[in-house]
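User: Please predict structures.

Assistant: First:
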Amino acid sequence: MTEGDERLLMLIDDEPAQSRLICALAAREGWRCIVVPDAEAAFNTLRSREGQTIAAVLLDQWVPGDEACALIADLKRIRPLTPILMLTASASPLLAVEAMRAGATDYLIKPIAPERLLQALRSATTRESPKDELQPLSEKLSGNPDFESLIGNAPSFRNALAQAAKAARGQGHVLVQGESGTGKELVLRAMHTTSPRAKNPLRVVAVGGVPLNSMESLLFGHEQNAFPGAFDRQVGALQVLDNATLLLDEIDRLDVSIQERLADVLESGIVRPVGAKHGFRIDVRLFCSSNFDLTELAASGQFSQRLLAQIGHVTINLPPLRERPGDIPALTRHFLKRIGEQPGLRQHSITDSALSLLTAYDWPGNVRQLQTVLFRAAVFCDAESLTTESFPQLSEMLGAVAQMDDQRQQGFGVLLYRDDGNLRPLEEIEADVIRLAIVHYSGRMTEVARRLGIGRSTLYRKLTTLGIDNVA
C-alpha cells in the first residue's frame, strides 16, 4: 500500500460517541472509517466489495474476553493478512495474551491517547519498516520500581542512575531526558520511592494524551463559570499535590503559553486557578521527562527558557539501548522472568544464539521495544527456551549473527578491559564502583562511604575528582 492509497478502517463498536471520536482521530492520517455494531455486520462487510479494501480492523472488547478472542480468531480466518487491533478497558495481562494468541496485532487500553491509537494504526499497516512488528503490543508490566530493579551496568547508564539516586533524596525539580523507551518514567518513579515525599502521592500526567484546551484546567484548575462550559469548579493538579510530586511525561509537548504560566508558578510558589481572584501557595516537586534535548529546543524558541531554568537544575540523560548492548542479556533474563509471572504465561529460558540475535539489533524503540518483542515471543513459544526462530522478523532482517566480542557479552559487573584488550585506568574502574554503590544504597551517602570503607569527606572528594558530583 502506498502513501497515496486510501486506507479503510473497520471499527466494530456499538458506542456512537466513542465511534465518532475514533473515526475523527483516524481521519487525521487519512483513514476512512466503516463503523459496524456487531460481529455479524463485520463479517458481512468483510465479504462485500468495499470490504475487500479494508486495511485494518479495530474491535472494541465490549463482550467477555473469551467471546472477543473467539471473534478475533474468526476474523483472522476470513482475512488472515488484515491487522486486528483490540480496544479494551481491561489491563489484564491474561486478556492481552489470549487476544494475541487469537490473532490480535495490538492491544490498546482505554482511555487511549490519540497518538497511541495513530501509532498502532501506522505500525499495523506499515510493512516496510523494521519496527513493524516491534511496536508496543501490550502496556508496561505493572509494579512500583526501585533502583535495584533497574537493570544495566554500562558506565553511562550507571552514571545516570547514580545521579538519580543522589538527586532523589533532595527536594528540587528533576528533568530526565532520553529517547522514547529508554526508561525515563521508571527512573523517575524509582526516585519517588526513595525521596522524602515517598509517602505522599505521585501523579503522572502524560502531556501528549491531554487535549490542549484541557491542560490548563488540569494543571492550574478553574473556578465555576470561568469560561463557557465551566459548570463546576475544578481544583488543579498543582494545588492537589501540595507537598507531593507531579510527573509531567513529555513536558516538551506543553503549549508554550502553559509553559510560561508553569514557570510563573514555580518561581512564585503560588498557583491561581483560571477565573480565581486569589492564588494558593503550594510546595510541589516536579519530575519531568522529555524525548528531546530541552536545551536545544529552548535555544530555537520551541521551549520556555524560564521553565527550563526551573526544572533543568538537575538534568539526567539516559543512554539509548544501542549504546549499552552489554546490558541486553541481563535485561532479557529480567524481562523473561517478569513475563513468566503473568497469568497465562510460563517461564522461558533463552539460547545463546537468540541472545546474540537480540544483541546485534540496534533497538530504535529501546528497552520498551525489547520488552515488547520478548512478550510476543513468550506468548507464542510452547518450548522451554526461546530460540532464533522465536524472533522471525529479527532473523530475517539481520541474517546470520557474528560472534560477539567479550565486552558485548558482558552482562554484569564492572568492565576491567578496554576494547583493545588493555586494562582500563584505575580511576575509571573506581568511578564505576562508586556509581554502583550509590545506586545500590539508594543515594544514602553515609552508607555508601561506610560500605566502601572510606570517610564521607573522602567520598565527596572522589565524587568531584572523578566527575560524578554533577548533581546539585
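Second:
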Amino acid sequence: MSPWISPLTLSARHVQLAPLSHAHHDALLEAVRDGELWNHWYTAIPTPEGMQAEITRRLDLQAKGSMCPFAVIDPATNQAVGMTTYMNIDAANRRVEIGSTWYRQSVQRSPLNTEAKRLLLAHAFEQLNCIAVEFRTHFFNQQSRRAIERLGAKLDGVLRSHQINPHPMAPGALRDTCVYSIVASEWPNVKTHLDYQLARVRA
C-alpha cells in the first residue's frame, strides 16, 4: 500500500466511508440487487455472483498501492449501500481519481453521494495536498456526468475509443471516457458549493 494513502474511515452526518473488507459482502450483495445495477451497460457494477471477486480485486489493488477502496455506509442503518475508491493513485504527482463508485438505487440522488464526495475531496486536498482529483465516466452515463458536474468538476476532455466495453449487453463496443477534474486552486469554491448544498438539506 502506498504510504501516501492508507486505509482510513471518513465520517459525516449522511455517510461513513469505511475501509472495504469481505465483512461487507452480504450488505453489498443486498445493495447491488436494489435496482439490478449490474444491468447498466455503460458502467461496470458487479453482479451478485461476482461481488466476492470484486471485493478481492479491489483489495488486491490496495495491496499493490494503486487503490484505496471504501464501503459506503448509511448511518441510518449502519449497513453498506455501495462502494467508492481512491484509484489510479499517483503519489509522485499528488493526483488521484475518485471512481469505481456505485450506490444502491434507494440512496441515489440523496445527500449521501454529495457528502461522500465532500469527505473524499477534503481529505485529498487538505490532508494529501493533491494537485488535482479526477473523475472518469462513460460518455453515455448521463446520470454520472450530471452528478460529477454538480460537484463543480470541469470536463478536461473525452478519450475517444478509450476502452473495450466488457458488458455482455454491449459486446465489442468501445467506450468513450469523459475525464473531469477539480484542481487545488478550485477546491475552496467547490468546498463552499458543497457545504451550501448540504446546508440546504439540513434546513
